[in-house]
Amino acid sequence: MTGTANPARRARRLALHLVCVAVGALIVVPVWFGVLGGFKDNGQLSTNPLGWPDPWVTGNYTGILASGVFWRQLGNSLLIAVTSALVVVGAAALASFVFARFAFRGRELLFTLFAVGLMFPFAVAILPLFVLLRGLGLLDNPLGVILPQAAFGLPVTIIILRQFFRTIPGEVEEAAILDGCTPFGFFWRILLPMARPALATVSVLAIVTSWNNFMLPLVVFTDQSWWTLPVGVQAFQGQYADDTARVLAYVVLSMLPALGFYAVAERQLIGGLAGSVKG
At 137, is the secondary structure helix, strand, or coil? Predict the structure, then answer.
């Protein structure tokens, strides 16, 4: 039985490896095409789309990096993404602490209401959200993007953090209370440091989600000085529709900050998700 099981196991592993290679190729090839395409001109893109540039056209990248518009959009995206993450993680951490460590009537019903928020796509609320933001005077204001993004990010953030907080043994909280810790002191001094993997996970998710958000900044910002990178990419593509190589360079430069941040935080992201699922 062992002799027949090993070939079958090897065949399954080989099939899994082939699937992983195919999926990886589907991801890497477009990125490879974009990076190299930014170093070409339009003639090279039509005759040699996947090969090495000959000659290398660095002006597509250097021209964008020398533009103040790109750096302003990068700063806007960074400001909105980081602030949105701070708001959603701070609010969700407090709510998750209450849901995980306190027992009160209606707790599960209230938590279910937050979870129901996952069922509603962002696009469904864009029209009433626009009317609300206009009434509050938050159009052309970064808060008009930050606050809705934080609100829509609360459900998944609360679900992840609540599950992680529930894995902390009750004996730890009891010992902290006996030592004179208040509930908020336990939350601030003990629970949050222990929950760093989960906090890192939800922070990464919030930042990447905000960074890739296109529709809300497009609706809120009519002032081009507040445009974020996704909106800037769309505008740049319309402006240079005939210069595909330059558009590819702009897209690649717009992706690099998010890819770099994800690469740095990948271990914390996977560890936090694994801990939440395990709990």
Answer: coil
Can you give the pLDDT of all 279 residues of the chain as single tens digits?
455 557 778 888 888 888 888 887 787 888 888 888 889 888 888 888 778 888 898 898 999 999 889 999 999 999 999 999 999 999 999 999 999 888 888 888 888 888 887 777 777 888 899 999 999 999 999 999 999 999 999 999 999 899 889 888 888 888 888 888 888 888 888 888 888 888 888 888 898 889 989 999 999 998 999 999 999 988 888 888 878 889 999 999 988 887 787 777 666 666 555 555 444
Alpha-carbon distance values, 104 to 77, 109, 154, 229 (Å): 40, 11, 21, 44
| Amino acid letter, 109 | L
Give burial (CB, 10 Å; 0-12/13-18/19+) of 16: exposed
Q: How far apart are CA 126 and CA 198, in angstroms?
A: 30
C-alpha distances in Å from residue 204, one per residue of 142, 166, 211, 253, 258: 20, 21, 10, 19, 10
Could you write out the DSSP letters of every residue in 193-234? HHTHHHHHHHHHHHHHHHHH--HHHHHH--SGGG--HHHHHH
Q: What is the CA radius of gyration of the chain?
A: 24
User: What's the angle, vertex CA 230, arms to CA 38 and CA 80, rounded to 5?
Assistant: 130
154 in Cβ contact with 195 (< 8 Å): no
d(CA 30, CA 233): 17
